[in-house]
Amino acid sequence: MIKRISPRRCGILRAAFLTMCILFSVTSINAEELPVTITGENKEINIGPHSEYYIDHTKTAAFEEILLKEGEFRQYKKKSYQFGFSRSTVWIRVRIKKADSLQPDDFKRTRLVLDNPALGSVVLFVPVIRKGVKTTVTTRGGWMNPQGTLDNDFLYTTFMFPDDYDDTRPLYIRVETPYAYNFGITLYSWNSFMRTSYLLMIMIGLCIGVLISMFLYNLVIYFFIKEKQYLFYILHVLGQLMYQSVLFGFARYINYSAGSFLLSYILLLTSLSVFFALLFAKTFLVTGKTAPRHDVVIKILMTVMAVVFVLTILEYRWTSNVVLYVFTQVSVLVCISAGVASYRFGFKPALYFIIAFMVLALSTVIFILRVVYIVPENTLTQHSIFFGTALESILLSFALGYRIRIMREKEQSLTAMSITDELTGIYNKRHFSDVFRGKLLESESNNTPVSLMMLDVDHFKRYNDSYGHQEGDTVLRELGTVIKETLRGDDIPCRYGGEEFSVILPDSNIEAGVFVAERIRTRFMEKVFTPGKSKGAVTVTVSIGVGTWNGKESGDAFFKRCDKALYAAKGTGRNRVISAES
User: In whole angstroms, what is the distance from residue 488 CA to residue 4 CA?
Assistant: First the structure.
């Protein structure tokens, strides 16, 4: 059953329809932008909404042929030109008029700027009136036109207008590039042009400075520690440094010929930078162990980057560009995912790694959102990837430092374990052998005394036989505690073997050595043990031999002399300290 619409609702619908028609009409009227007029008061004019465009799919149309395609030009309504990856040539037509009040010098200093240095060929067909005759002059720029008349006082492709410019006819711009057709065209007044130049130079110089600093800083570290993660990081940063410098026109600003040459092979720099980023991720995260599935994907992506490198050398730039664009985004996501998997595995330095690549991903998203007009078009969003790259390099450097710190702590822990007696917590015989002769040389060099103490638990075998080895371990553990609590910080206590202990006493003469030995003996004698099989409390004693190095004898002779004093203490009744005769 169909319900009838009430007259009131019908009136509302009519009003809504009329409103939509009016809005559509207004939009259509506003879409027909007037020609660009330079008044001298406007600082920046984006010519996108004022222009028309034509796509030459043959790439062969001459200017005279383009003039015949008057009705095939379509109005462009956006601020920046976004034609993506195309094998065609883009023609842009725009009327640029001079206001009657415009001063000649103001027009002469006006700059026409295309904000993408990677554009291969930019040709301006400028209408002029010379000797009373209307004609057209050609001005060329871009890295594919190294002999052009580019005004090289800016990072971007920049043009000036001739004095005899004819503003009654449109200006034509022909753009061709093997890379993406993403660019804006802006008219700048002189003051605005200079201000923009300084601002861009400061920001890009800052980012390049960060990349150079990270490169040099980590290069120095690599020479000292020889960690391959640092090498791959350095190569990644170097690739990013060269790529960003070339992409944003800095290299061409420094040296036009070299910068143009590097622009023609920028895909090589990009593929190498991504390749080493993947290799760094694989090595740093130890993906073979922490994220094996990601390890396989990273190897595949590295292979793709190698293929792109070869295709670029073979001059397949368009194909290389498309493949590189897609797989670079994939590589960033895979690196983030691998970092998450590694962190979940327990690899804590992966946290900095994740943050670094998320910053890079975020800067890429901002750049893309700028392209589709979701975020505002400005200098910061236009160069967001450059800023993200600089910040990424800093965070990756932090990640490396954190990883090295953890490795060093682990190494120190393993070293400490290798030289520490597990039962008593003091040094073992291995450490004693490593430091004993060094302390003697130190004593000789500094002309300071050094003493050696040898200790042995009295009747320890009898104690073990009576109460068991576990009770014997308790005695040894307690003796180790007494020794540690009695000694100074520089003294070196060691469990030499079984129930025998040794202590190196730097900067101590025989009197100090005997004093410390007596304190250890009496403190340990006061300890009370209650082994399970005993009927009451049990005390244990130690015998100690102490000697001071005379500076002439060998280390072995000194050790034997102190050991002989220990046996003298045991042979004369035990529980005593005997001084070794020098």
Answer: 102
CA separation (Å) from 242 to 213, 296, 459, 469?
Answer: 14, 28, 75, 68
What is the SS3 string spanning 340-366? Answer: HHHHHHCCCCHHHHHHHHHHHHHHHHH
Are 261 and 251 in contact, with CB atoms under 8 Å apart?
Answer: no
| C-alpha 79, offset from chain centre | 33
Q: d(Cα 348, Cα 298) in Å, to the nearest integer?
A: 20
How far apart, in whole angstroms, are the C-alpha atoms of residue 91 and residue 121? 12
Provide the residue type at 292 as one letter: P
How high does pLDDT run on average in the chain?
85
Distance in angstroms (rounded) separating the CA atoms of residues 89 and 95: 20
Burial of 92 (0-12, 13-18, 19+ CB in 10 A): buried
Query: What is the DSSP secondary structure assignment for residue 420, as one 8-state letter?
Result: B
DSSP codes of every residue in 60-81 = ---HHHHHT-GGG-EE--SSSE
Residue count of the chain, please give it: 582
Helix/strand/coil for 31: helix
Please, where are the H alpha helices in 248-349? 250-254, 256-264, 266-284, 287-290, 292-313, 317-345
- pLDDT of 432 > 70? The answer is yes
CA–CA gap between residue 172 and residue 155 (Å, rounded) = 22
Helix, coil or strand: residue 82: strand
The distance of Cα 127 from the centroid of its chain, to the nearest Å, equals: 49
| Residue 562: per-residue pLDDT | 93
pLDDT band of 14, cuts 50, 70, 90: low
Rounded to whole angstroms, what are the CA distances from 74 to 33, 53, 60, 91, 92? 13, 5, 19, 10, 9
Reply yes or no on whether the pLDDT at 377 is more than 80.
Answer: no
Distances (CA, A) of 557 to 109, 150, 453, 579: 92, 86, 14, 15
**Smallest Cα–Cα separation from 390: which of 179, 248, 281?**
248
Element (H, E) at 392: helix 384-419
Select the more confidently predicted residue: 248 or 308: 308
> Which residue matches tokens 């601020």?
79
